[in-house]
């Protein structure tokens, strides 16, 4: 099948950002991201508490992978019917470059995701008597460019999975397991990349930890990597693998 031209990116109208329907979707993204970040990052704090805050071990990595995978499975599920369950600016950006969400609606999603992450980590710090989830940073002996490439590849896999199981109109019954597939790829990616880049794959998650812990070392990696990886996955899947004679744009006339 020939590759189609990238003509489906839609800015939308500013009124869309303040429309009640968009705000409801933003609220769904806020709650879902809060649930995901609180459970995922909370598991790390809890595990450290149980092990008396010792050095990182392989069991720490497995626990983090399982907790984030399960939490994302739930977060995507609870928001899917309202907002699509993005729970990640990289997913929203991948949907935007593929023409599946307008710019203004996407910005509402991203702001909601960032706020959800920050609020989750503030609540977590309060609930655990001041214990703060560490900010993401590159692993020992790993260069920033190594970490950047790793975040690109890991997020590419995540957003590609989102497209294949949730966005593709030909997904059929596969769509019913989309939240599970998305949670599983995140868990697997954490096992693969956790020791090297932290395997964030999510700018909102990295932003929340950086804000609450006020640690910005190499923070740019956790925006650039996921957005590049998510953008590549969105463009590739939408314009190569989704066969649509006419692109189905999001309805914007109501706005």
Automatic annotation (TrEMBL):
Transmembrane segments: 27-47, 59-80, 107-130, 142-166, 172-192, 223-242
GO cellular component: plant-type vacuole membrane
Subcellular location: Vacuole membrane
Main location: membrane
InterPro entries registered for this protein in UniProt: Aquaporin-like, Aquaporin_transptr, MIP, MIP_CS
Pfam families: MIP
Molecular function GO labels: water channel activity
Keyword Transit peptide annotated: no
Domain of life assignment: Eukaryota
PROSITE patterns per the UniProt record, alphabetical: MIP (PS00221)
Membrane topology classification: Multi-pass membrane protein
Keywords, alphabetical: Membrane, Repeat, Transmembrane, Transmembrane helix, Transport, Vacuole
Family: Belongs to the MIP/aquaporin (TC 1.A.8) family. TIP (TC 1.A.8.10) subfamily.
Protein name, entry field: Major intrinsic protein
Origin organism lineage: Eukaryota, Viridiplantae, Streptophyta, Embryophyta, Tracheophyta
């Amino acid at each position: 099948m020939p590759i189609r031209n990238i003509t489906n990116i839609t800015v939308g109208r500013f009124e869309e950002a303040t429309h009640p329907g968009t705000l409801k979707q933003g609220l769904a993204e806020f709650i879902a991201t809060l649930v995901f970040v609180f459970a995922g990052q909370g598991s790390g704090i809890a595990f450290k508490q149980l092990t008396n805050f010792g050095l990182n071990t392989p069991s720490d990595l497995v626990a983090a992978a399982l907790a984030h995978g399960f939490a994302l499975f739930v977060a995507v599920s609870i928001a899917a019917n309202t907002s699509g369950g993005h729970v990640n600016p990289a997913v929203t950006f991948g949907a935007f470059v593929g023409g599946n969400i307008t710019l203004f609606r996407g910005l509402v999603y991203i702001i909601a995701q960032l706020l959800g992450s920050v609020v989750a980590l503030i609540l977590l710090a309060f609930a655990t008597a001041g214990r703060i989830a560490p900010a993401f940073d590159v692993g020992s002996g790993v260069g920033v460019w190594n970490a950047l490439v790793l975040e690109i590849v890991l997020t590419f896999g995540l957003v590609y999975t989102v497209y294949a199981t949730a966005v593709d109109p030909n997904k059929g019954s596969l769509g019913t397991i989309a939240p599970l597939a998305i949670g599983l790829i995140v868990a697997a990616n954490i096992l693969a990349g956790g020791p090297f880049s932290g395997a964030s794959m999510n700018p909102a998650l990295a932003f929340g930890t950086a804000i609450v812990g006020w640690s910005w070392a190499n923070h740019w990696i956790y925006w650039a990597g996921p957005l590049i990886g998510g953008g590549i996955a969105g463009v590739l899947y939408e314009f190569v693998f989704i066969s649509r004679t006419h692109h189905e744009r999001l309805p914007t006339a109501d706005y």
